[in-house]
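for the writeup, i need someone to sanity check this before i put it in the appendix. the sequnce is what the collaborator sent (i think, or maybe the updated version? ugh). structure was predicted straight from it, no edits. if anything looks off just tell me and ill rerun, i have time this weekend
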Amino acid sequence: MNSFLVLLPPVLVLILSLATKNIVRSLFAGIIFSAFIATKFNLIKSGTIIYTNVYNQITDLSTIFFILLLLVLGTIIAFITKTGGAQALGNIIIKKSKTAKAAQTSCLLLSIALFIDDYLNTLTVGPVMRNLTDKFSIPRVKLAYLIGTMAGAIIIIAPISSWLGVLVGQLETSGISFTGQPLVLEDPFFAYLSTIPFIFYSFIIIASNFFIVKKGISYGPMHTFELNALNTENLGEDKPLEKTVENEKASSPSLIDFVTPIFSFIIALLIGLPFSGGFYLFGGQHSFIASLKNADSSLVLLISSIFSLILSLISGLIRKKLSASDILTLTKEGTVMMLPSVITILLAWLFGAFLRNDLHTGDYLANLVLGNLNITLIPCMIFLTSVAIALSIGSTWGTMAIMAPITIPMILSFKNITTLPTAIINIPILYACLGAIFSGATAGNHLSPISDSTIMASASAGAHITDYIKARTLYLIPSIIGAIIAYLICGFLIEKSFYIAALTSILSGIAVSFAIMLIFNKILKK
């Protein structure tokens, strides 16, 4: 559809979720409204299109694998809590963390250490850190903010992660390749590596989070939550994960019960991805990078989590931390723990599918914003457009899938390059534009009330999701403005010097973000 009506469903969901504090009902309303708009308010056709999308969603193998992954990860978290693995790690961190500032810094460092996968990152940091942050009266929304923003920002700039195949594959399908009929001649993996310095938002938000903790930045709704936590001991809890698990204090908590599931998951992932993609050392035909691109990441994530769980349970049985009857109990508790998040994420994905496939909200926004602009402004406008799309549809990958195929031909047109394919060295601004897509998709995902990162971060921290959405927004704005400035600067410098453009832009963006936070910290204390 080519109408402003396609923008109304995401606006409706945002307003309803903040007004009612019920994201599930808000998503239901958004889905129904989207169906009516897509069918021009035909009741019968609306019912049909809802049924079709629901059927496609629940029968999609990637969706099934993801649901099973969450349930298995929930059981792993239950295991870590039951056996005392989380307690053991918490004890180590507590010895090192004597202040609230140190506790929050530990949260950030743990997120960085778990860069390999954002789901693993999000669902691990919350249960491990909650007892410690509770001890220092840090509100759950603050913990959710640190968890949610770090996981997404880190994984998209990590050269090796569970996202690598998706990122490289997206560049190849959008026209960057040495094979087929490419628009730009370059290996997509090396194109991604060269794009990392231009994913400004990730660097800015990570630096800003450390600045927030170091300087004790507190303003807006987050300040109110922090004051309530300190003065009334109301941490804003909402069914924290460990409360759904039998939380006995282990008689001899051991770090082995944390290390075994986490590291076995990571090792299985590092082996499983190239194996799935046909790495030549495993009998396939592909190089390591090509194997990562061809890997079935959703299936590998699931198998890795199952391997991790089985190994952990065997370890627990051998070391007499568990009995055979505990296995069924942990499975039940892990399922109950994750079920609300699974339901919410499924609804969010279904709503996003309507926006992408039926209403084409992202395409409408892209065509609306990206008109006849000076090429130096293009990276900034691509960033803003990507933010708007990701905010609307709640999907980082969906935003990249919309923007990359639009951006690459557009840049070639702006540069008047008609002889194709062309070497990427002829269009250095393309790196900045691809970085702007990745940055905007991440930033918009952080802002979106319907993104899986929002839902999982609030669940992991045990925070009310609407409180989390309310508290984080003013904390994200400085980094987003910093990224806007960075892309404006980059647009003017990129044709002159690749490295100077990247470094100058990142440092400028960080400085702007810090300055805005300091100003907010002074004027938004009410």
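The mean pLDDT is 83. Strands lie at 184-185, 422-423.
thx in advance!!
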